[in-house]
């Protein structure tokens, strides 16, 4: 299938393994130039080699923690004008809500809600100016089917979904979805 996105630039967050890596691979196979990142540089380099070998898009790596301000700075310095942003990060641990205090909640909200919001805040207006943009947020089925032990995930990811729903209509008029 030709998605007509060959030559576009994509940031795929948290992408040396799993869902992020699969997104980067699919984009590279479409001829999209991808910027992949993870905290472990060795695993990231391995993923980059494999993705490079399988697709026609360029593959760039950024060793960065996407849940930190400095990590997002590094990612957006390497690719300042992305056409596509795939937001992703590791998920919070399961457990009993009685055991979770402010630290656990702040970490979950930072990792699985705020980090994606900040990537969007810093890339959306450029997409609107250029008349094209796609933002994909990898979250969880927990948003629709919450489970008790996944409380941190249910809360943070539902918050992201709610936020996105609120801002999505306006940029869609400029072909940014
Ligand atoms: N797989 C599923 O069935 C499923 C279901 C529901 C929800 N999810 C959610 O979807 C997301 C991805 O899941 P997955 O199964 O694809 O995970 P995975 O296979 O464990 O891969 C996680 C990837 O993210 C990177 N990463 C993790 N934290 C990062 C950070 N702070 N900054 C930069 N990179 C980071 C990891 O590399 P480094 O460790 O080297 O940084 C790795 O490349 C998670 O939030 C998960 O909870 C997954």
Secondary structure layout:
Blueprint: E1 9-12, H1 18-29, E2 33-38, H2 41-54, E3 59-63, H3 69-78, E4 84-87, H4 102-130, E5 134-137, H5 151-167, H6 169-172
Parallel strand pairs: 1-2, 1-4, 2-3, 4-5
Helix pairs in contact: 1-2, 4-5
Bound molecules: NADP nicotinamide-adenine-dinucleotide phosphate.
Could you characterize the architecture of this molecule?
It is a single chain. Helix 1 packs parallel to helix 2. Strands 3-2-1-4-5 form a 5-stranded parallel sheet, sandwiched between helices. The longest helix has 29 residues. The protein has 6 helices and 5 strands. It is α/β, with parallel strands linked by helices. The radius of gyration is 16 Å and the shape is globular. It has one domain: NAD(P)-binding Rossmann-like Domain (Rossmann fold, 3-Layer(aba) Sandwich), CATH 3.40.50.720. The site of NADP nicotinamide-adenine-dinucleotide phosphate (NAP) has 21 residues, from helix 1 and strand 2.
Order of helices and strands: EHEHEHEHEHH
Distinct small molecules: NADP nicotinamide-adenine-dinucleotide phosphate
Might you state the CATH topology name? Rossmann fold
Strand content: 5-15%
Global shape = globular
The amount of helix comes to: 40-55%
Number of strands: 5
Average pLDDT reading: 97
CATH superfamily: NAD(P)-binding Rossmann-like Domain
User: Number of helix segments?
Assistant: 6
Spatial separation of the terminal alpha carbons? 20 Å
- Poorly predicted ranges (pLDDT <50, ≥5 residues)? none
Largest sheet: 5 strands, parallel
Number of domains: 1
The CATH class is identified as Alpha Beta
What is the CA-atom radius of gyration, in angstroms? 16 Å
Sheet with most strands: strand arrangement: 3-2-1-4-5
- How would you classify the helix and strand content by structural class? alpha/beta
